[in-house]
Amino acid sequence: MDFNLIKKYVKLIEESDISELEIEQDNSRIKITKKTEPATTAQHYSVPAPQAVVVATAPAVKQEAQQPKEEKNSKVKEIKSPIVGTFYRAPGPDADPYVKVGDVISSGTVLCIIEAMKLMNEIESDISGKIVKILVENGKPVEYNQTLMLIETE
To answer: pTM of this prediction?
Structure first.
């Protein structure tokens, strides 16, 4: 799990009436609770937020490098996920994908769908160019700001 995302969850807990949040993703699970009295459970990790404790309840899984650090070609732009959810390349299981590697697209072209909280969110391109690489597999979870595709601009 992304540490920055965990920090956002901790901040959400602190600024709301929520007293506990438990999230399970892949082979990892975290539980965040507001600190009301000294905790006595097994493993505690300090978090920069003074009122929160993060308790790890499953072994963390090392995430593979899903995002290239920097592309050598400055014409290659990243399309990033605007939300956390599940990535789908097509509008349905039997439908053709919205885009494939090698497709030339224009601004406003639907690239994929990200399902979040049972809502299907179409992700549109804000640039024109050619699809160079699709970095996420169909049906896999994506994080906020995770690179989904690389597009070579003209």
So the answer is: 0.53
